[in-house]
Recover the amino acids of this structure.
């Protein structure tokens, strides 16, 4: 199924958690002046307009990134992210994950952006060419292929340092299975990489989410018990706060399907857990609905 379009959800609370984590990992990789490989398995269009018809229809950006940008006394851990987003918005675009990866990649690094949706792929090609007009320090490959296939074919990469961001739409049950399977296989072939898995918090999919995370955790721990795994969550409402609907029916509804989301990170960059602990309590209070915001940061 290829119906999911991120333009309806760009700038929401889940984006903020994902991008805060992603930016920290990239900035940490950049501290060592040595190129790396980066894989984005479900890239999307890369750039978005927060005043588009799609974004305005859901109102998720207004309750997410746009609300955050108007705050004055934000935690110091958020300064880098907020400054980056503001710089992009001055250029008339909101950055998706691929834009962050391309703009922040260290010189000589290889960035693999995969997007299977044909229209989103065309947008991604165009958008990346826009932001790379004055930024040509990394090698960027944009592929109209399955992100799962790319992980299978390209891992381990030539550049041994690096990371993976995996954030499927989870429209189909196979996404939960594939995330567990392929990220476990990536760790087997590329054990030193940082693996970032974004996942939704959906009331009727708790078993699938738990099973997916447990499979990855048990697999990597069985290989090396000392492998660090971080699980972080940001919730804007309680688990029973909404009536479960389809993605399409949820557009424009008062109660979104997502009451929160999480980042499951294998080999987290040093200091990531402390970084998120400095951020998530603030975001939970700011973005939480009716005082129901909450968070979790746990090293497994």
């Amino acid at each position: 199924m290829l119906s999911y379009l991120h333009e309806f959800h760009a700038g929401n609370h889940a984006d903020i958690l994902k991008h805060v984590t992603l930016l920290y990992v990239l900035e940490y990789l950049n501290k060592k002046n040595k190129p790396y490989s980066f894989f984005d398995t479900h890239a999307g269009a890369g750039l978005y307009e927060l005043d588009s018809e799609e974004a305005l229809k859901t109102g998720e950006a207004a309750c997410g990134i746009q609300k955050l940008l108007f705050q004055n006394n934000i935690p110091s851990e958020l300064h880098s992210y907020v400054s980056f987003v503001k710089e992009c918005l001055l250029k008339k675009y909101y950055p998706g994950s691929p834009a962050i990866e391309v703009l922040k990649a260290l010189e000589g690094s290889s960035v693999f952006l995969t997007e299977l949706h044909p229209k989103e792929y065309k947008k991604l090609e165009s958008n990346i060419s826009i932001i790379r007009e004055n930024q040509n320090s990394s090698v960027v490959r944009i592929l109209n292929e399955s992100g799962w296939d790319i992980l299978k074919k390209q891992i381990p990469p030539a550049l041994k340092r690096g990371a993976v961001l995996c954030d499927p739409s989870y429209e189909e049950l196979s996404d939960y299975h594939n995330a567990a399977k392929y990220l476990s296989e990536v760790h087997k072939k590329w054990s030193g990489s940082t693996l970032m898995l974004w996942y939704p918090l959906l009331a009727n999919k708790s078993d699938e989410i738990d099973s997916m995370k447990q499979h990855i955790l048990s697999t990597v721990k069985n290989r090396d018990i000392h492998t660090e795994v971080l699980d972080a969550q940001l919730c804007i409402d309680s688990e029973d706060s909404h009536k479960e609907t389809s993605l399409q029916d949820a557009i424009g509804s008062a109660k979104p399907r997502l009451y929160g989301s999480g980042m499951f990170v294998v080999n987290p960059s040093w200091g990531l857990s402390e970084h998120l602990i400095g951020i998530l309590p603030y975001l939970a209070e700011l973005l939480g609905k009716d005082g129901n915001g909450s968070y979790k940061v746990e090293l497994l």
User: Anything to note?
Assistant: Residues 89 and 95 are 8 Å apart (CA to CA). The longest strand covers residues 194-201. The longest helix spans residues 13-30. The mean pLDDT is 90.
